[in-house]
Amino acid sequence: EVQLVESGGGLVQPGGSLRLSCAASGFIFNSYWMHWVRQAPGKGLVWVSRINTDGSSTTYADSVKGRFTISRDNAKNTLYLQMNSLRAEDTAVYYCARAPDLYWYFDLWGRGTLVTVSS
Amino acid sequence: DIVMTQSPGSLALSLGERATINCKSSQSVLYSSNSKSFLAWFQHKPGQPPKLLIYWASTRESGVPDRFSGSGSGTDFTLTISSLQPEDVALYYCQQYFSTPYTFGQGTKLEIK
Fold it and tell me: How confident is the model at residue A37 (pLDDT cuts 50, 70, 90)?
């Protein structure tokens, strides 16, 4: 089955760190650009970051630049998001999504993992 | 950043009625070299991943019922559901993938009256 499955969410204190994972299956993972998108409670979708097929190029939203790091392990078919210096406003469901190319639509999303930043 | 503005914010219609959701971008998302508008529509139901409905503004994703259609170019776009079905109750988002940061509309909540 073609799918993306996120994991690693949870409750973390402000200033803390968390690493999210996104396991891909059923397709050729290293052929796709990958993205992270988040949705805060009661709010809309916000793009967070993207990475190219071999991991050599990354881009971030200004709100997470310098705090979050996107990476991928094509041998393990897994996408990661390392989140440091977490803030209350980072509380959200985090989705991973794939895109067949740069500046291309997101054609498959995971179900998401909830990150809660609170003391 | 390109700002995406959707209207209306919510919509309540009867089964079988036509639903129209509008999306306006603050700048053109039309790439002149290929005449494609870099605009997608997603359906999002609680507890489920967002589902791609339409891309390149008017191309229906495989498996999406033909009652869903997209139109528009440049800065003004429309998602139309020709005959509302119970399973269409959801949030709908437009998104531009023309430039980073990719941006979404604020969403339109579609309900059955």
Answer: very high
Mean pLDDT of B68-82: 97
Q: Per residue in B32-44, pLDDT tens?
A: 888 999 999 999 9
Give the single-character DSSP code of A88.
Answer: G
- Asked if B51 has any chain A CB less than 8 Å from its own CB, the reply is yes
Residue in A closest to B61 by C-alpha: A107
Q: Which among A44, A103, A104 has the least Cβ separation from residue B106?
A: A44
Q: Does B28 touch chain A (CB under 8 A)?
A: no
Q: Which residue has the tokens 């869903």?
A: B68
- Reported as a pLDDT band with limits 50, 70 and 90, residue A26 is very high
Q: Strand runs (DSSP E) across A9-106, as ranges?
A: 10-12, 18-25, 33-39, 45-51, 58-60, 68-73, 78-83, 92-99
Q: What are φ and ψ of residue B14, in 5° steps?
A: -85, 155
Contact between chains at B95 and A61 (C-beta distance less than 8 A): no
Q: How many CB atoms lie within 10 A of CB A40?
A: 14
- Among A35, A100, A47, CA closest to B61: A100
Report yes or no: B40 at the A interface, CB cutoff 8 Å. Answer: yes
Give the residue from B84, B2, B76, B102 showing the smallest Cα distance to B43: B84
Res. A101 pLDDT band, cuts 50 70 90: confident
